[in-house]
Amino acid sequence: MIQSTSYKALQCGLHVAIIMDGNGRWATSRGLARSAGHRAGADAVRRTIDAAPSLGIDTLTLFAFTAGNWERPASEVSALLQLFCDFFRAQKKRWAAQGIRVSIIGRRDRLGADLRAAVEEVEKATASGEVMHLRFAVDYSARDAILRAAWRLRSRAGVSPEDFEQILSEVNHSGGPVPDVDLIIRTGGEQRLSDCLLWESAYAELVFFPRMWPEFEGVDLEAAVREFHTRHRRFGRLPESEAAQALAVASRAHAAHAAMPSA
């Protein structure tokens, strides 16, 4: 059970991204088809979404289907995309009632007509949500998104980071720029980013779990957020105490040099 700790009081507006890895391995270790692992993973998605708002998470991005996943067996890809379609339609009323706004980021030109329709339906049904922004990355590649955004801006001079983020949000269908990622969680024991939100995660903290995604619980999300709050995020700068100490040392060195007699 989620503890009563007020994470909202610690830090509002966290953007957490999760690389949901291990569905297939979870299934095969139990003698099941990989599609069974994806269905069990959908239950973990529900648990995670329910737990997130009380932990101070205002934006939750779930890495669901990478551009590289098209290389998997056609039967698995077909089953997974159908699962997305069914899941979005089954959950849209619930998410709307919870005040959750849903966006599907990534390419849409390679998705089937029924899935594109389900995407439009869930985004429209939840458009007024203000409790949390829930994003599913489907047919997503950070490298591809950055390349397409850069191509759109190729003839413009003096592009600011804000300009680039706006174009990046357009090519990703994300409905406008979102805050940078604060925390990336990856399940399944692997420790890599796998082309996930590379621009937005420049200063993200990383937490890895050995357990497979279908085993992920709300308490695991809480543990990751708790770990995040123990990290000291410097963004390339020195903490104020260290900066003051460094300045004092430099001042003493300068004073000592100035007091030295001339040769």
* Rg over alpha carbons: 22 Å
Can you tell me the CATH topology?
A: Undecaprenyl pyrophosphate synthetase
Which strands sit side by side, in order, in the main sheet? 3-4-2-1-5-6
Stretches with pLDDT under 50, minimum 5 residues: 1-10
* Number of distinct beta strands: 6
* Shape, per Cα inertia axes: globular
SS element count, helices: 9
Q: Write the CATH homologous superfamily.
A: Decaprenyl diphosphate synthase-like
CATH class: Alpha Beta
The biggest sheet amounts to:
6 strands, parallel
Number of domains: 1
> How much beta, percentage-wise?
5-15%
Q: Averaged pLDDT, please?
A: 90
Series of secondary-structure elements, N-terminal to C-terminal: HEHHEHEHEHHEEHH
CATH architecture: 3-Layer(aba) Sandwich
| Structural classification | alpha/beta
Distance from first to last alpha carbon: 73 Å
Helix content: 40-55%
How is this structure best described in words?
The chain has 263 residues and is of the alpha/beta class. It has a single domain (9-259), classed as Undecaprenyl pyrophosphate synthetase, CATH 3.40.1180. It has helices spanning 7-10, 23-28, 34-51, 74-98, 113-125, 142-152, 161-171, 218-228, 240-259, and strands at 14-19, 57-66, 100-105, 132-140, 183-186, 205-208. Helix 5 links the parallel strand 3 (100-105) and strand 4 (132-140). Helix 3 (34-51) packs parallel to helix 4 (74-98), helix 3 crosses helix 8 and helix 6 packs across helix 7. It is globular, with a radius of gyration of 22 Å.
